[in-house]
Every structure is written in C-alpha cells, then in structure tokens.
Amino acid sequence: MEITVTHYVVLACVLFSTGVYGVITRKNILVVLMCLELMLNSCNLLFVVFSRLYEGATGHVFVLMSVTVAAAEVAIGLAFVVSIYRQKQSLDIDLLKLLRG
Amino acid sequence: MVVSHKNPVLSAISLVLTLFSTAVLFVLLHAHFIAAIQILIYAGAIMVLFLFTVMFLNIREKEFRFDSINIQKRMTFLFIFLVAVGLLSSRLFSSSPVVFSKLKDPENFGTVAEVGRSLLSDYLLAFELASVLVVVAMVGVVIIAKGRES
What we know:
The complex is a heterodimer of chains A (101) and B (150).
Chain A: H1 5-25, H2 29-54, H3 58-88
Chain B: H1 8-28, H2 32-57, H3 71-94, H4 112-121, H5 124-146
Helix pairs in contact in B: 1-2
C-alpha cells in the first residue's frame, strides 16, 4: 500500500484529537501539559508533510520555531506546576479557582 | 496511552514512544534534521523535564485516582472527534491523493545546510526572536520556581 498525504493528515488529526481529549478530560495538570505537547507534535507533523509535498524549507523552519516555543512553554508550565504544588499540595486543576471562574 | 494512564510516569513514557514514532515519520519524509531535533529536544530535554518534575513532586497515591468526568461528556467528545476525523478524511479521500514514493527526491531537501540557509536568510528575525523568547522563558522559570521567600 502506498503512503499518501491523506494518511499523514489523518494521523495528525487523530493525534490532535487525542491531545484535545486529554486536555479536556484529565484533571492532573502534568498530564494536561503532556497532551498539549501531543497537539503541538501533530501540528509539526503536518508542517513537515506539506513541506515535503511542496518542497520548501519553510515548513522545517516553522517546526523549529514551534519546537522552541514548546520547550519554553514546558519549562514555564512545569515551573508553575511546582509553584502550584507548593501552595496547594495537589495537582488537581479543579482546585485552581483563585480567579473564581 | 498518554491520556488514559493513571500514573503520570507511564503516560510520560508513552509520550516518549509517540514522539519517537513521529521522529521516524520525519525521517521517512526526508526531514532528517527535524527528526534529530525532535529526538534531542522533545524526547530528550522536555521529557526529562517532565519526569524530573513528576519525581520531584513525589505525588502521593491518592493523586493517581482516575479522573471523575461523567461518561456523557466523554461520549460527546468522542463523537465530535469521530465526526471531525470522518469529515476530513472523506474530503481528502475524494480528491486525488499524492503518493509520496512517487515524488522525486530533491537534492538537499531537509538537510542541515538547507534548513540553516533558510533560517538565517529569510527567517532571521524569527530566529532572533526565538532566542529572545528562550532567554525570557529561562529568566521567568527561575523567578517563578524560586518562590517569594526572599
């Protein structure tokens, strides 16, 4: 069976949907961050696929930027997690209602 | 696997597996530099950071309970995702698909030289802004994680 661009797009859709599902349903803040990584990764996959399709390096540059932003975001997010755990002694995101949302 | 494990360590290891598989797909797409970056930064640095935090916080057993979201909500989201994926795939399958093995292999596609030339000529501003972003993130992390006991 030949691998077409459709297979990659469907795979990226499934990865992204898994990420969204995890972000919505999980309550552990660490797992929510991991699902965010999953979503970013599926977008990277799409960038690389279409960069291959149209044969330019632009998609690769975008993926590099996205990886940089993901690394910065994970570092800040985990610092927040540590800070939150110090205050609340828990990682449950339902306890984060400081803004009374 | 990332979503469904109760233990955050196991879901982190599943995420590493997923990222490795994506890196393999990048190699298949002739994006060798991106694949190397993926393994080094994602599977290396970011996942080590995750596992370090999980083990640093030393979460007690009661944190690992299964999250109580009612089944109705879950089924709704599952349904939405199935519909979205179905719509997208039907739209794509109807058009003529592009077979990747029939594409010609470009000379230096996805190499470090090609990506680096593009990064340092056309996207120089974005490159510099990314470095500024990383510095800001580093300073922010140090300040946030230090707390305010000083």
